[in-house]
Amino acid sequence: MGWPARSRRFCMKVGMIEMNVLRTIEAPDKRLVAASFSKAAASYDSVAQLQRDVGHALLDRLPADLQPSRWLDLGSGTGYFSRALAQRFMGAEGVALDIAEGMLAHARPQGGAHCYVAGDAEHLPLRDQSCGLIYSSLAVQWCSDFAAVLAQAWRTLQPGGVLAFASLCVGTLGELRQSWRAVDGMVHVNRFRELDEYRRLCAASGLQVLSLESLPHVLHYADVRGLTHELKALGAHNLNPGRPGGLTGRARMLGLIQAYEAFRTPAGLPATYQVVYAVLRKPADQGHS
Fold it and tell me: How far apart are CA 152 and CA 126, in angstroms?
């Protein structure tokens, strides 16, 4: 089935801007994030229960009266939620954007969006006031400048448009962090923003904060290797500067396993994710698209 003419024009304009945007992604950590998630594209969905649970919870938080003519899945990954958005907003144009080209290549044949764009949330390759909804689940925690993400959302949202995001904050993988701390002083777990920082930046963004809360999501594993294998399969293993290089030594891994056992419950070894859910709306009196 062919796309509507305005969809083709929109995607052509996005594509023309795309390469310029990609040249702005110079920070090594962003390239590392892109490469890590591209490598994980094939294995991601098989271990992505947290991502699916969080993404569906974010969908449930969207305003009931929201009917965007165009939506953006920001940090679209394998396209699972692009397809969910397409089903929810039938007739709307969909754009899937991700920093990892490997994820886009995996998602494109499965459909859902009208166009798939490699780009950066801090430098969106979209026209001003071009989207009625920006949906982003478990992606913006990888952005170093969240104020820029919010500024881009404000720019690209139509008046009355909605930004809905789920992210991670301090406290995520606390059990793993504490267990590694008992082994050595190296950075083994990704760092995340404070919840209060999300609140401060959202309040200063010019967008109306309809809701913003943090809820714990706890997964359980039979052993430590089950957790670390899943993080690697998701592409979400340690990407921070200061992380130890090379393979983790046997002695250190045994130390980690021993330290983590202190957290064991009847359900298994817990891994807690502190999930931030936020829904923001651009004021309707910001002009016309």
Answer: 9
Decide if 134 contacts 162 (C-beta within 8 A): yes
Which residues are within 8 A (CB) of 249 and not within 5 positions of it... i.e. 6 or more apart?
none
28: Cα separation from own chain's centroid: 18
Q: How far apart are the first and last CA of the chain?
A: 28
The token pair at 195 is 């919840």
β-bridge mates for residue 98, sequence order: 118
Least confident range of 53-57, 254-258, 285-289: 285-289
**What single-letter amino acid sits at 237?**
H
To which H or E segment does residue 46 belong?
Answer: none
Note whether 159 and 281 are within 8 A (CB). no
Nearest of 236, 285, 283, 275 to residue 61 by alpha carbon: 275
* 3-state SS, residue 165: strand
How far apart are alpha carbons 166 and 25 in whole angstroms? 23
Side chain identity at residue 23, one-letter code: R
pLDDT, one tens digit per residue, over 192-215 is 999 999 999 999 999 999 999 999
**pTM of structure:** 0.81
Q: Calculate the alpha carbon distances from 233 to 36, 169, 203 in Å.
A: 9, 21, 35
